[in-house]
Amino acid sequence: MPGLGVDFHEGLLQLALAVDNDVRRARMGVVYVVAMGGFKPESTFAVIAACLAGVHGPTA
């Protein structure tokens, strides 16, 4: 993905835009964010971006 790995802040912005785009495209279905492993700041940011884009957490 362009923009990731170049600059930390720019990478986070590109990650948030990509998550928002994916959530909007999958709006008709169920959207899950499975944050397992990887880079902790980026995983946290992806979960926050998904929540801001309208993904709901578990209800149980």
What does it look like?
With 60 residues, the chain is an all-alpha fold. The chain contains two helices and no strands. The protein has helices at residues 8-25, 40-53. The mean pLDDT is 76.
Derived structural class: mainly alpha
**Main β sheet profile:** none
Distance between the termini: 34 Å
Cα-atom radius of gyration: 12 Å
The overall average pLDDT, rounded, is 76
List the helices and strands and how they pair.
Blueprint: H1 8-25, H2 40-53
Keywords:
60 residues, mainly alpha, globular
Give a brief description:
By secondary structure, this protein is an all-alpha fold. It has two helices and no strands.
